[in-house]
Amino acid sequence: MASLGEPKNTIAILNKYNFVFQKKFGQNFLIDSRVLEKIVEAAGIKEEDLVIEIGPGIGTMTQYLCERVRDVVAVEIDRNLVPILTGDTLKDYSNVTVINEDILKLDINQLVKERNGGRPAKVVANLPYYITTPIIMGLFEAHVPLENITVMVQKEVANRMQAEPGGKDYGALSLAVQYYAKPYIAANVPQNCFIPRPNVASAVIRLTLHKEPPVFAVDEHFMFALIRAAFNQRRKTLVNALANGAGERVSKEAVSDALGRMGLSVTVRGEMLTLADFAQLSNILLE
């Protein structure tokens, strides 16, 4: 089977099937074998692994995975790609299952249980940028047994995922990702590594899931409600942002009192608080 990491082989397949790129699915196919190697390396995949690939496209990354792991489940939403995958680019591999489904509607917990005996799987994906956050947060919030998630995302989103307090990239996404996982940017990927070329630069980021959350929140939903309120009005002081946006039970007085107990100024903004600070704040406000 000719490697799809070579641009001419990808173009040949697309021409053979008269494939039309669907803008609604945000399709950009990788055509650089060096980037494929970096993704595989970042994911740290081993022979005995189950890998769930989200958005295999025409199977470029899938071929790489099939040659290196025990079992690959490729979840593809575009039904026009299924005959290309099953009848052509992946037909020589016996260790791959193609599922034509929206990943947001698939019971991945059940899938991992059946295919991996409950042991943690790995996720690899080249995600459409408009749906990156819902997919990643969906995997986290469903508490799917995963070792890591290695994804190609918009470079700006990767920067936000690993941002530290105080910077312009730091926000609700940084805190949500870091609550569930340790982010590491493994590679920056220029636009010319894709067909068609996207308008933005990309990055490969690996999210290694924590075995236990790094902070203790009595009510994690409440903590995240505070985080969202803090960053919805990030130019305001935390006291004002939470009093306006975090619901009836959060008053200016309660927030000011909690910040005082934490040794923080009442004029502090949300972008200066760490994840541990937000957990402590939420716990105090719930007392």
Written account of the structure:
This protein is α/β, with parallel strands linked by helices and 287 residues long. The chain has two domains: 7-209, Rossmann fold; 220-286, Helicase, Ruva Protein, domain 3. It is built from twelve helices and nine strands. It is elongated. The relative contact order is 0.11.
Give, in order, the helices and strands. Answer: HEHEHEHEHEHEHHEEEHHHH
Calculate the terminal CA-CA distance, rounded to whole Å. 62 Å
- Overall mean pLDDT stands at 91
CA radius of gyration: 21 Å
Main sheet properties: 7 strands, mixed
What structural category do the secondary elements indicate?
alpha/beta
Query: What's the CATH topology label of the largest domain?
Result: Rossmann fold
The CATH homologous superfamily of the largest domain is named Vaccinia Virus protein VP39
Question: Tags for this entry?
Answer:
7-stranded mixed sheet; 40% helix; Rossmann fold; alpha/beta; 12 helices; 2 domains; 287 residues; Helicase, Ruva Protein, domain 3; single chain
Secondary-structure topology with pairs:
Layout: H1 7-16, E1 29-30, H2 33-43, E2 50-54, H3 60-66, E3 71-76, H4 82-89, E4 96-100, H5 108-116, E5 121-126, H6 132-141, E6 146-154, H7 155-161, H8 172-180, E7 181-189, E8 194-195, E9 202-209, H9 220-232, H10 238-245, H11 252-261, H12 275-286
Parallel strand pairs: 2-3, 2-5, 3-4, 5-6
Antiparallel strand pairs: 1-8, 6-9, 7-9
